[in-house]
Write a structure and sequence with these properties.
The strands form two sheets. A seven-stranded mixed β-sheet has the order 8-9-10-7-6-11-12, with helices on both faces. The protein contains 15 helices and twelve strands. Helix 3 packs antiparallel against helix 7. It starts with a helix and ends in a 25-residue tail after the last strand. The chain folds into two domains: 205 residues, 3-Layer(aba) Sandwich (Aldehyde Dehydrogenase, Chain A, domain 1); 159 residues, Aldehyde Dehydrogenase, Chain A, domain 2. 45% of the residues lie in helices and 15% in strands. It is elongated and about 70 Å long. 45% of the residues are buried. By secondary structure, it is an alpha/beta fold.
Length: 392
């Protein structure tokens, strides 16, 4: 796609934005409520198309995508959307405006953040210019197609563009907007901040991850949290923390649960760099064990899953793709100290401990094990509401 293509898309969005200026918000909310109901139904044609297309694009197995969508979209209802709009704007009819145009830079391979990132500006009648993630070129197009089918006027207010990440001319045209939503690594978001105008409103969604604080009886639920989306989302737990006397039993139980869930929800493609990272971290753990450090390692030759039970609570790299570290802790204070270096990156914590015990870590989602991957529509991604950050 060329710079001229992007500028032409912006011109079409300007015309679409003019048509939205006097549109009643109730009509817009009703349209998106209809869209969510169409997407979340188990018989949804949009879900089925995504299940057909996303595995080939993102490397997931079909069963994993199907299970992930059913769980994640189950409670994304029209009523839930109406409640969010009323709560954040004061009322559905509130005179709250978005920006003239919003550029949305998408990232990752999980469909749900894409849907909310595209929907939120449009709820404020701000036309959207979106660049899909390279790992998910599917969801944004399906979302736009479903919106055009339900409401052609709103559907005209979204344009999907693609260009090389190292094309400065196209990037300049894409980020030349009053509002930019940037999702990705901290490095990507920082690079976007350097691209945008000084007066551009920038909404940042940087690196996030999740953990579990669990006991051996939570092994199956934790395995589900890990297996869904192959640990590729910000709500995928990359480490589990157990009281010291429970860490090894939990590691054994988690290994068995991951082996079992592999039969039902097989891991998808393993990119070469990810395989190298898993082998590197497994080899490093084996070296520590050979040196007399109390580390245990479980996995298989195909690298379908790996569990490393660590000797301490110190944070270590997480290669993902169903690689989990199990850390022993000596009480809540020890847990809080151990997570200080990464607490600012925490998106979610799966645990049945009292919420107030874990609140100091700052995670936006604290829930029972097994439900991390199904946040409500109102979940505050990065601690931010859905609509308020996009208001003009």
């Amino acid at each position: 796609m060329s710079v001229d293509d992007i500028r032409e898309a912006r011109a079409r969005l300007a015309a679409a934005g003019s048509a939205l200026e006097d549109r009643p918000r109730q009509r817009t909310v009703d349209a998106f409520a209809t869209l969510l109901e169409a997407w979340r139904s188990p018989d949804s044609v949009w879900q089925k198309r995504l299940v057909d297309l996303l595995p080939g694009a993102a490397g997931f197995e079909t069963g994993t995508v199907r299970e992930g969508l059913l769980r994640a979209l189950e409670h994304w209802s029209g009523d839930a959307l109406r409640e969010i709009v009323s709560r954040e704007l004061g009322s559905i009819d509130a005179n709250a405006k978005g920006f003239a145009q919003t550029s949305v830079l998408l990232a990752g391979s999980i469909p749900m953040p894409t849907i909310t990132s595209l929907m939120a500006p449009l709820l404020l009648h701000s036309p959207v210019l979106a660049k899909p993630a390279s790992r998910d070129p599917v969801t944004a197009h399906l979302f736009a197609e479903s919106l055009r089918e339900i409401d052609p006027e709103l559907g005209a207010a979204i344009e999907i563009v693609r260009f090389a990440h190292d094309d400065p001319a196209c990037a300049g045209a894409f980020f030349d907007a009053d509002c930019v939503v940037a999702t990705g690594s901290d490095e990507t978001v920082a690079a976007v901040a350097d691209h945008v105008r000084s007066n551009t409103h920038l909404v940042r969604h940087g690196h996030r991850m999740s953990i579990s604080v669990v006991r051996p009886e939570h092994a199956e639920a934790t395995a589900l949290d890990v297996a869904l989306w192959d640990q590729q989302g910000c709500l995928s737990p990359v480490a589990a923390y157990c009281e010291a006397d429970q860490a090894e039993p939990f590691a054994q139980a988690l290994a068995e649960a991951l082996e079992e869930i592999e039969r039902r929800l097989p891991r998808g493609e393993l990119p070469t760099p990810a395989a190298a990272a898993i082998r590197r971290e497994t080899g490093e753990a084996e070296m520590r064990r050979a040196a007399g450090i109390d580390v245990s390692i479980r996995g298989d030759e195909a690298l379908r899953w790996t569990v490393v039970r660590e000797a301490d609570a110190n944070w270590r790299p997480a290669p993902l793709h169903r690689f989990v570290r199990v850390h022993p802790i000596e009480g809540l204070d020890h847990l809080l100290r151990a997570l200080e270096p990464v607490a600012r990156h925490l998106a979610g914590i799966a645990s049945d401990r009292p919420r107030q015990d874990l609140a100091p870590l700052g995670a936006a989602r604290i829930c029972k094990p097994g439900s991390l991957q199904a946040p409500p529509l109102a979940w505050h991604h990065d601690g931010q509401p859905l609509l308020a950050p996009l208001l003009r």
